[in-house]
Design goal:
By secondary structure, the chain is α/β, with parallel strands linked by helices. The protein has two domains: 20-112 and 229-280, Rossmann fold; 116-226, Rossmann fold, CATH 3.40.50. The chain has twelve helices and twelve strands. The chain has helices at 2-11, 31-40, 62-80, 90-103, 116-122, 134-138, 140-149, 163-173, 178-185, 211-217, 228-241, 267-275, and strands at residues 21-25, 46-50, 84-87, 109-110, 127-132, 154-159, 191-192, 195-196, 199-202, 223-225, 257-260, 279-280. It has a six-stranded parallel sheet with strand order 4-3-1-2-11-12. Bound molecules: D-glutamic acid (DGL). D-glutamic acid binds at residues 25-27, 29, 55-58, 89-91, 133, 136, 164, 204-206. The site of D-glutamic acid has 17 residues, from helix 4.
Length: 281
């Protein structure tokens, strides 16, 4: 039984080799989802894609960004033949998840969208803030989530121009501008009729890397919702439902890899990817 399993990858053609989980973000944010996914799917191989050539996504016009993501996936799905793709980026998911599913029917996509439903269920004060990129904040998708799940809450959308970039610097160089973090999160904190904001949704996958600094610079304690684990769980359950479970042979001999679309990852980025157990492709 064990022998048959070990021999299986070699005996198959390229089309039948173990298929990886593809994790996609504009930069390093998707690593917050990758670390959860690894815990839940230890036998899976991962391909991490950072579209750093286009970072930050938050500043892009919608049609151009949607087109870019669709074109990238046309290539990525052929090149890596993933079993599933996780769009570990709110800015990309709220814009393109439906277009991706339409363009590539049959391929499973897991999106990352602002965790407004759990926040609405959990808040006691009824005052919730969604901290995201300017792109995610202006999406119709985000407004629809609020209309559907949080009608009884007061939800404030806070678009941050700087936090994703600050998280990139922190993870590469170990430096955080705390005054900038404080200024970026300040609009999340509301006081109304004696009640205060008690939940902040981290609606950009970069932000959990800065959550300790956010806690430190926040005017009062709140719950910070990071959806990474829920996203990883969804991916794992879709793979199991699809009959593609976590058998030992799934990983194969290939290492997990990271691909930067610029093709020009600097030393600090390479070191960071290495720290996450990813070999630069
Ligand atoms: N990590 C991305 C997200 O979840 C956004 C970062 C960017 O602006 O590119 O929204």
């Amino acid at each position: 039984m064990t022998e048959a399993r070990t021999a299986r990858p070699e005996s198959k053609g390229r089309d039948q080799l173990p298929r990886p989980v593809l994790m996609f973000d504009s930069g390093i944010g998707g690593l917050t989802v990758l670390r959860e996914a690894r815990v839940l799917m230890p036998n899976r191989r991962f391909v991490y894609i950072a579209d750093d050539a286009a970072f930050p996504y938050g500043a892009w016009e919608e049609p151009a960004l949607r087109e870019r993501i669709l074109a990238l996936f046309d290539d990525l799905l052929q090149r890596y033949r993933p079993a599933i793709s996780v769009i570990a980026c709110n800015t990309a998911s709220t814009l393109a998840i439906e277009a991706l599913r339409e363009a590539f029917p049959g391929h499973p996509f897991v999106g990352t969208v602002p965790a407004i439903k759990p926040a609405a269920e959990r808040t006691r004060s009824g005052l919730v803030s969604v901290l995201a990129t300017p792109g995610t904040v202006k999406r119709q998708y985000t407004k629809d989530l609020i209309g559907k799940w949080a009608q009884k809450c007061h939800v404030r959308l806070v678009g941050s121009d700087r936090l994703a970039g600050l998280a990139e610097i922190y993870m590469r160089d170990g430096f955080v501008d705390e005054a900038a973090v404080r200024a970026e999160i300040a609009p999340c904190f509301m006081e109304k009729d004696g009640a205060r904001t008690d939940i902040v949704v981290l609606a950009c996958t970069h932000y959990p890397f800065l959550v300790n600094r956010m806690r430190k610079t926040a005017p009062w304690p709140v719950d910070w919702i990071d959806p990474a684990e829920a996203i990883a769980r969804r991916a794992a359950s879709l793979l199991t439902e699809g009959g593609d479970g976590d058998e030992e042979h799934l990983r194969g001999a290939e290492p997990d890899i990271a691909v930067f679309t610029s093709g020009r990852a600097d030393f600090a980025s390479r070191r960071l990817m290495q720290g996450f157990g990813l070999v630069m492709a």
